[in-house]
Structure formats: C-alpha cells, structure tokens
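Appendix B: complex inputs.
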Amino acid sequence: MQRFINDPDDIVDETVRGFVKAHGDLVRQHPENARVVVAQGAPVAGKVGIVTGGGSGHEPAFIGYTGRNMVDAVAVGELFSSPTAKSFLDAIRAADGGSGVCVLYGNYAGDNMNVKMAARMAAKEGIEVLTVVANDDICSAPPEERDKRRGVAGEILMWKIGGAKAAQGASVREVQAAAQKALDATRSVGVGLAPCTLPANGKPNFEIPAGRMEIGIGHHGEPGREVVDLASADGVADEMLRIVLDDHDLGAGDEVCVLVSGLGATPVNELYVLYNRIESQLSERRIRVHKPFVGNYFTSLEMMGATLTVMKLDEDLKALLAAEAASPGLGVSA
Amino acid sequence: MPPRLVGGADLAHEMAMGRIDTDFLARFFQAAAARLDAQRDELCHLDGEIGDGDHGSSMANGFAAVAALVRGGRHVPEDPAALMREAAAAFLGDVGATVGPLYATAMLDAAKALDRGPLPLDRSPEFLAAMAGGIARRGKAGPGDKTMLDAWLPAVHAAELALREGASVSEAAWRAAASARAGAEATATMIASRGRAARLKERSLGHRDPGAVSAALILEGFAEAVGPRPAGIGA
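Resulting structure:
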C-alpha cells in the first residue's frame, strides 16, 4: 500500500504538529509534552476539566475532539497503543481548573492501566479525578459482560455530553454522571470490509476474504461476531440496526442521535447510502432521528468499513447535545 | 521500616557474594537495555505477528531511559529503593501501551523489596518475585495466559529452587534466565487470553509472546549483572 510517510517512527509527532498548526484557533500543543494537545483557553478556572486519550490512527479521534465545551486536553499514544501514564497525567494537570477532572476514555487494557496510574498521581497533587470508561461496542462481549465491552465511536457522544455538562458549571460528580448516562444510552456496532496495516509492521493486521464482511469488528481489527458474505448496503444497514435494536431498549416514540462513521478507507458517499437506509428503517419503527452525524468521525487507519452508533435521547441529553461546542472533529452552533 | 543492619562477618560474607545495591542495579539496567536494544527488530517482528509491531521499540527505548539514569555511576549505593522508584518513573514517562504500567509497577514493587537497604544476592528471588508480583497485580494475568508472566514466573521459581539446592547466586540467576527463555518459547503453544494478542484468540497460536521474549532478555541482563554464565546453563 502507498502512503504519505517520512519515517514510521515520526508519524505520530508529525501528525500532532500538523494538527496543531491546522487548528490553532481551537487547540495548542502542551508546552512540555509533545504527546498532549490542549484546548485554547483551557484550563477554565472553576470548570471541571474533560480529558481523554488513546492510541493514534483513529483521527479525528482523539485529538480532534479537543476544543470549546468539548474535551480540554487529550493524551496521544503511538498508533493503536495507549498513551503513557505521564501523558495522561500532564493532560489531567492541563485540564484542571481547580474543580476536578473527568477522564472519559475507552475500555482497553492499556488505557485502563495508564489512566489509573495517572489518576492516582494526580490525586496525590490534590486534583480530584473521576473516570467514565466507554463500553458501547456491542459485539465485543455479551450483554451479561457489558463491563468487558470496548469503547468505540460512542465515546464521541460521551465527550459531547460531558463537555456540555462541564461548560454549564456542573460539579465533577455531575459531569461524571452525565457522561455515564450518555454512555449507558449508547450502543455501537462495526462492520469491516478490509483490514488496515500499521506502517511499522508492514502487513495487514487481519484478513477478510474478497466478497465477505466481518460483522462486529473492533476498532483495531479485533475479531467480530462472524464473517459472512458481503450483503447489499441496505442489507448491511439492516444487520447493523438489528444488532443495535436487539441490545438496546428502543421503541416507537423514542428519539435518538445516530452517528455513522467510516473506518478510514470507505468513501463518505457510501456512509450516506447506509444512513439513508438506517433512517428509513428507524422511521418505519417510529423511532425519530433527532440528530444525525455522518462522516469520518472515528477511523482505524485505512480499514474499510463503518460503525453505527445510536444514543437514546431524553430532554436532558437533547439539551446537552444541542449546546454550543467547537472542535476540529465536531461542532454544534448555538 | 528500620534499616537492615548487618555487620562484621555477615557483612563481609554479603559483600563477597554480592548485593542488589545501586551499583548492581546500574549493571542490571545497562545489561538489560543492551540486550533489548540488540533484539529490538526481532521483538518488533514477533509483535508484528500478533500485535502492533512496536514492542521492540517500546522495551528498548524504555530500558534505555532507565539505563540513562545510571550513566556515569551513582553516588549512593545504599539506597537502591530510591533508584528503583526513579526507574519506574522514567519507564512510565517513556512507554505507554500496557508494558509501561506493567514494568513501572514491577519496579515500584521491587523498590519495596529494597526499602530496608541492599538485598544480598542469595535473596534475589525476593527481588524477582516482587517484579513478577507487580506485573501480575497490574495486568491481572496468570500462568498460561500467553503473557510476560509465562517467563517471569518460571524464572522466580527456578531461582528459588536453585538456591535451595545450594547453587551459587550466579548459577541461580542464570538458571532463572534459562527458565524464562524456556517459558517464552512455550508461549508459542498457548492461546492469548490477556493483552493485545487476546483479540486474536486462536489466531495467536504458533507465535511466541513478544512480552515473554523481552522478559527473558531482561532476566538475562539481571543474570549478567550477578556474574558470568556458568558452563552448561542456557544458551
């Protein structure tokens, strides 16, 4: 595969430098840590800080959600690899406006360990740190083991809700509760059509035979529920929706936020083809899409495929979703 | 905790046998860093088979950061615990993923084993067990999960057994390293249930766990710091 690349060892640092140059109105580089991006204006005195972090290669996640009324500071890891505890700690410090910090991150072994160590070190410095661990990926574990599920694109909605709550001046406990509520109302599923390759590794991280698709694939190529014949776009959309509805408490009269994200190599127009079907199928069940997002919101290098994320809304979540926010990856106008 | 007081004949005996003090740790860190650096590409290749291909760089860079702490020697040989804690912070500042917290926790637990001062080398299994215990506690893995513990746990056991059988401290250390190496080889027959390779499940069969292979290199570095390899142990 052909890439725009200098040295594989420099790709993350060069990504961060380019990102900060491109979005200087919203973000800045941490002055001492090349692997931390901070929102312009952060920390805000008295406001709860929002922190996240994760491996690189998912752009615009995670750095792209740094901004106003969104995430205050992001720790950046190697490709598909958790940031260091030191970077999480520096992000926590950079986000702390004196009212505590919520770290809203995904359920992966490395992130869990590094966040935990960073949170303990921050607590020793007198910063109150609470966490919410995203586990929206349905196919990564059965319902009775929901705590083992991984976090995927639903994290974006968790950041939006948590960021909006923090911007209202809520306490660190209230922000944690709002982010947890958003997460509990959210389910995601992924379908993979072709794998991706880590540049330093040089070979695809898994294989999907031509004419087949992997239902329930994870954000790094984790095995899904099954590999089946590639269906039509409508057939794929129906299957994704079926998996979400089977796992979620949704019925006629409900309102939802729908996020369809490409995994990197899938053309954006195909995401609209999927969304077209998803919306009409939801309508038929009298489930109203209050707010859709369609595009490359959370990718996996050049993996081909898409994820569907559905968040069930109530008035409280609708208000927080509608609150003004600005970040390179997601903006909501007032 | 009060300092461990030894004197007279005891101290002379201990000095002759060797102790885990800051001078020892300096030799250990440098030997482990050299071995990891020499195998950097091989470890990345192994990791590329079942992971993301960066294990060699993570481990070599992390131990290089730790070895840099002792470049030029240390002036307080009696406080190895403090050096161990510095090493943990250096490793944690350089390495993310899961290996960062795993080895940092191992080093912090090893620091506790040195809190009463340098440890005589006939008690080195306590130091190694603390490292292994930290890894197990942080990673919540057990034997047979196809992780670095499948090298660390047999190494601790081999060192204890060797000393019980009356082996010299250097023979015990090298038998530990050889057991770690054998444990790393055995991971090829295991299905990963922890760590990044766990997502591959049975796809991980036939591949050695890179974390177990790097653990064997670290334990060889430890043995090298204890003394030269006795004839007939390991390869």
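Strands of chain B lie at 19-20, 119-120.
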